[in-house]
Structure formats: structure tokens, C-alpha cells
Amino acid sequence: MHELSVMTQVVESVLGSLEGRDVRRVESVRLEVGELTMLGKEQLRFAWGVLSRNGPLRGSKLVIIRKPAVVECPGCGFRGAPKKAPAGWSHTVAPLIACPRCGGEVRIVGGRETVVRSLRAVAARDRRPGKRRGR
Ligand SMILES: [Zn+2]
Predict the structure, then answer these.
(1) Domain residue ranges in the chain
(2) Entry pTM
């Protein structure tokens, strides 16, 4: 299952970002998933459930945000959403996406990423002397 290997990396990066911090548990994680990744929401949630069973991620909520595809056309300079995301998009068939303006070949510049956008965590100590603003 592709989702499981992707989520393994996500969980690792989340746990990595918690290192050295006094975090008791994580409440929620916002994950941006590009629409071209072909990752299923349900499968991602399932994988998250399996991988977050122990440790600070236990009981955390996964929020999945779909990111639309963005293409760039070297021919006419168009940048934006492609004409259409072809049905039956798969890893085995080379995707055919055309520029909505000139019909030319485009470069995919967005929609293939899986990014942890933010996470909400509960500190191990109730309150810290006020230097926990921002990043
Ligand atoms: Zn174009």
C-alpha cells in the first residue's frame, strides 16, 4: 500500500519535529496532499491510525487538505490549474495534461507533494515562562 509508506515518512518527520521539545501528546496534524499524488484519503487515515497507535501521536487527529494541481506552460507562460485532471490517472500511464490556454505541453509545478503544514501539540508542562511565541 503506497499510502502506508508515505504516511510512515510523514509520521517520522512529525516525530522528528517533536524531538527536543516537551510535548506530551499531539492533538492534530494538518497534512497537505496534492491531488496528483493519487493518495486515497481513507487509506491515508487508515495508515495514520495504524502508525499513530503508540507514543505522542496516540489519539491524534489527521486533517487532510487537498492541494489542487498547478501547471506551468513553457509555451505561453500560463500558470494555474490544468485543463482537467484526467480520469484514471495512474502511475503506469504517463499523464496527459494540456495547457488550458494554448493546448501545449505543461510542466507540473504543484499537486504532487505531501507536506505536513502544521501540528497542534500539548506541552508536557502546563505553562512555560512566556517565550513560546511563533517559531
Ligand atoms: Zn500554454
Answers:
(1) 1-68+111-127, 69-110
(2) 0.76
